[in-house]
Amino acid sequence: METPCCYPPTDSDQSHPWLMVSQGMKRHTFYSISENQYFERCVPEFCDKQVAPTSYEWVTLFDHSISPIHCCLFNSESREKIQIPPIELPPESKRHLFYRCILSKPPNDPDCHVLLLPNDNFRLFCRLGDDKFVRRSNTFGDDYFSIATNFNGKLYAWMRRFVGSYSLVEVDFVGQELILKQLVNDNGQPCQISLPTKGCCFNDYLVESCGELLLVNKLSDWRLQKVKHFKISK
Fold this sequence. Notes:
Elements: E1 18-23, E2 27-32, E3 37-41, E4 50-53, E5 58-63, E6 69-75, E7 81-87, E8 99-103, E9 113-118, E10 122-127, E11 134-137, E12 144-151, E13 154-162, E14 165-174, E15 177-182, E16 192-194, E17 200-209, E18 212-221, E19 226-233
Antiparallel strand pairs: 1-2, 2-3, 4-5, 5-6, 6-7, 8-9, 9-10, 10-11, 12-13, 13-14, 14-15, 14-16, 17-18, 18-19
């Protein structure tokens, strides 16, 4: 480890993104893939905040010590901050929520929307510059998505339709509504798969690789706490 300083390490020849691991709320560890080296830093803007990655070289900072939750977009290269609406927690919420953030377009685009996915049964979204988030609960008990990503300028989400049945949808924003479009494959069939529900727990990821959008399902044995296998779909 190097001596901590105020900002992440910089490298003009860096060909891979930095990985960041939070260490409590004060210090963070950055890992350079290209150099196979760790750097410990104390970034002032990150201290006492939840740092959520997003796209277009921006991260989202959430200050849970303030009610309503104060949040903003932050560019670690330019140090620019863009305020987004505060988050009003529902009265029935009794637990700490972790938020995932997805941007529909770069923040300098007038049609940029911010989508927040908390680890709960509702979604938040707004157009950048709005005064408040639109809150949408799941329509039914089973139709929710916990992962989404921006790929080639469009938003995609992995959505549970029924218990054990999941499908890929395209997400769009029309006024105060969130529009979900079921995607189909080359044969006109819905892009969906079924996953086991007994004795298994799984984590899902939408990742970009070599210009393709991949769905990665990690299945684990919940009793042994061991990974059984990965299922990758293109």
